[in-house]
Amino acid sequence: MRPSLRLAAVVALLVPVCLLAQVQGRGGAGRVETHVDQGQQAPAQGQAQGQGRGGGRITIPQQEEVGPAQALRSLFTQDAYTEYEILEPGSESFRIKFLPEQNRAGSTELINGTRGGSEGSGVEVYDPRTGKPLKFVYEPSPSNPADHQIRATLAMPVPEGGVGRVLIYKTYKDERTYRMDGQDIAWVRSLSGYRLGVVLPKGFAFISSNVAAQLSTTTAGQLKIAFANPSGQSNPVTVRARKTTAVFTPSKFNDMFFDDIKTLYDLDANGAVKVEQTYSDYRKGDSATLDSLGYLPLDDLKVIDLDTAKAFTPVKSGKATTVKLDVPITDDKQSAHLRITGTIKDGYKVMNGELVFERTLHGLRNTILLPAGWEVSACSQSGTIGMYQNRAFVALINLNSENEYKVTVRAHKSAAQ
């Protein structure tokens, strides 16, 4: 086994499930952000650990020592979503749906870099705001002609305070990833993305999957697993499937990891909490309902269209609050990209020198940023701890289908403050 592959295997085994990956930062205007393909080369046969189909043991050479990872400084993990649809047996191909983002103000392009070994074809690029095709070039990478990249032209330069995004479809052919074991499918790929999905061909059922995942049936009757890779590190995934005569009924629930919602609770020094929530709304129509206001009683409410960085005017009608969209959503390629901000008064308490933040949280990703000078002493749910601008934070990832859970975070003030 090559040293790089041995190291990837060790990282996948040793990194806790809740470790956060570094996310892309902001840079100078006009810069182009490169998103490397999230599927890495699968290990060659005989290099995986476990028991083969014939019952024999497959061994791995002694692992290399792994050094410490960098301290966590990013409030959230990467935002891209990737879905792999395995195509018909014998094709060695799979169709990818990829939703990357570009944060650098002034940028006019987004580059999706791929790697050698995967033969790319059928590239399509769309603007998620309008659903219309975008201009792109599929070309060899300037740094390595064996690799390729998609250079997509954004619908508009990324505005200050906004986010650029594209929807990419592409087909890869890779015999190392997609193999046949007799009549069975064996799909093996190291995935370094964060929110992921794998879809079987119609008429196939899972024999096994080595990742904990949500299992559902699509409207087309295909089985799909969906899961998160919170570390963002290389995560070897092996899926095996076989033909079946069973007919599967579409599930009544959706892929929970497709939801990109993330909420920041920024605790100030006076007991108030500044809330910032971003998400994509795919519901069709010319308005978006702000459902989160049902559990976020926000003062000083502001709603921003992240595609344009323009402010919306919230309109309250009964218990619902909505915003009028500049571009109505009419097809599945479209969505509204929103940011909600506001303040919760008396959002936490300090009792006997201990800070206590207690709240029922909603959605996949929630981060609690403590006031300066406070150190985390307890968290009732699984989360990671990091530092952001010299302030401690706890980042929580909800891997269960229940959309809400109660969390208590406790902290004590440093004596140096």
Rg for CA atoms: 23 Å
Strand order of the largest sheet: 25-24-28-22-21-31-34-33
Q: Compute the number of helices.
A: 1
Question: Major beta sheet, specifics?
Answer: 8 strands, mixed
CATH architecture of the domain at 262-413: Sandwich
| Average pLDDT for all residues | 86
Could you say which structural class the secondary elements and strand pairing correspond to? mainly beta
Helix content: under 10%
| Poorly predicted regions | 1-33, 40-56
Overall, the morphology is: globular
CATH fold-level assignment of the domain at 262-413? Immunoglobulin-like
Strand content: over 45%
CATH class of the domain at 262-413, please?
Answer: Mainly Beta
**Cα distance spanning the termini:** 51 Å
Q: Got a strand count?
A: 35
General description of the model:
The protein has 417 residues and is an all-beta fold. Helix content is 3%, strand content 49%. The protein has one helix at residues 3-14, and strands at residues 33-36, 39-40, 50-51, 57-58, 81-86, 93-99, 101-102, 109-113, 119-126, 136-141, 144-153, 164-165, 167-173, 178-181, 184-191, 195-199, 204-209, 214-217, 223-228, 235-243, 262-267, 273-281, 285-289, 299-305, 310-312, 315-317, 320-329, 336-344, 349-351, 354-362, 365-369, 374-379, 383-388, 391-397, 404-413. Strand 5 and strand 6 (93-99) form a beta hairpin. Residues 1-33 and 40-56 have low confidence and may be disordered.
